[in-house]
Amino acid sequence: MDYSILLASLLATPDATPLLPLLQKVLSHCQHFADLIGAFRNGPITPAATHDFECQLQHELRQLGLDLCDWTFNHLEPDDRQQLPSRLDCDGERYRCRDRSPNDIATLFGPVTLRRYLYEDLEPGNPCLFPLEKQLGIVAGAATPALAERAAWW
Known about the structure:
single chain; 3 strands
């Protein structure tokens, strides 16, 4: 199946239009994989060439994982703040929704910048909430659960 047929079939699925930028990134990675495999197969097969192929493949796979994590995490909340509750109650405290703010999060694939909505406590001096980070299970405001697990094993 060529890329145009694959893209057409993916776009034919319900609610696929928002996925178009992600699908384009994935297809770009697929092209890199095909180029990498082709270059390896068409060149002399040596230990050095095998090493280079494996290292380049690992790099490309990590980049694909990073792009997938970045896109997925940053598209969990709506773009329009009006679609979120303007007020939030948590542990007896009341919070109001503010604009998105960035936070660099470490994943198994590398760092991503998570743009999440901030909920500010109505009482001055109390910490803010980031519901998306809580839903994702972000550890210490800095790492995904999978990376935190890996770090714990180290």
